[in-house]
Design goal:
By secondary structure, the protein is of the alpha/beta class. It has 2 domains: 68 residues, 2-Layer Sandwich (Double Stranded RNA Binding Domain), CATH 3.30.160; 80 residues, Orthogonal Bundle (Arc Repressor Mutant, subunit A), CATH 1.10.10.10. Helix content is 37%, strand content 17%. It has 6 helices and 6 strands; from the N terminus they run βββαβααβααβα. A 4-stranded mixed β-sheet has the order 3-2-1-4, with helices on both faces. A hairpin with a 4-residue loop joins strand 2 and strand 3. Helix 3 packs across helix 5 and helix 4 packs across helix 5. Its EC number is 2.1.1.63. GO terms for molecular function: methylated-DNA-[protein]-cysteine S-methyltransferase activity. Belongs to the MGMT family. It holds the Pfam family DNA_binding_1.
């Protein structure tokens, strides 16, 4: 049976990105300024028998909530998620969703919360595979010594998101 993945290219703050959802929920937020192929390759790899359909009506509620989060008006994403990953990746993403807005933790902290203290590298890999930037807040994870570490969308965006959260959502306008 075919599953439809609805998608839309969106503009959020200074970032242009693709977002996608299934009937179950938001499943993908792409790297800013990445080509459509990033999304289509992700869908081909992760969603069996997918049909892709551009659909503003389906994606718009997620866009509005994400925009509110970026603008500091909604600190917790309440929309449904449909995350595709291994059981370990899913467990890491669950931990990420417990990090409060404006807070940070380390990769080591994530591994310890999973009761797998030696799995720090695997945690980093799972965080790097996070398909839903910002909503599953991988930007809130730092190295043990407080440095930014990696981020699929680049360290500049990670720094901007952390600063935005520290300032309570004001963009210095």
């Amino acid at each position: 049976m075919k599953q439809t993945v609805y998608w839309l290219e969106v503009q959020l703050a200074e970032w242009s990105m693709y977002m996608a959802a299934t009937e179950k929920g938001l499943c993908y937020i792409g790297t800013p300024d990445a080509p459509f192929e990033e999304l289509s390759n992700w869908v081909a790899k992760r969603v069996r028998n997918a049909l892709m359909e551009e659909n503003q009506e389906v994606i718009e509620p997620y866009v509005n909530e994400l925009r509110a989060t970026i603008d500091g008006k909604g600190q917790i994403f309440t929309g449904q998620l449909d995350l595709y990953g291994t059981p370990f990746q899913q467990s890491v993403w669950e931990v990420l969703q417990t990090i409060p807005y404006g807070d940070t933790i380390s990769y080591t902290d994530v591994a310890e919360r999973l009761q797998k203290p030696k799995a720090v590298r695997a945690v980093g890999g799972a965080i790097g595979a996070n398909p839903v930037l910002i909503v599953v807040p991988c930007h809130r994870v730092l190295t043990k010594d407080g440095k930014l570490g990696g981020f699929r969308a680049g360290l500049t965006m990670k720094e901007q998101l952390l600063e935005l959260e520290r300032s309570g959502g004001t963009r210095g306008e």
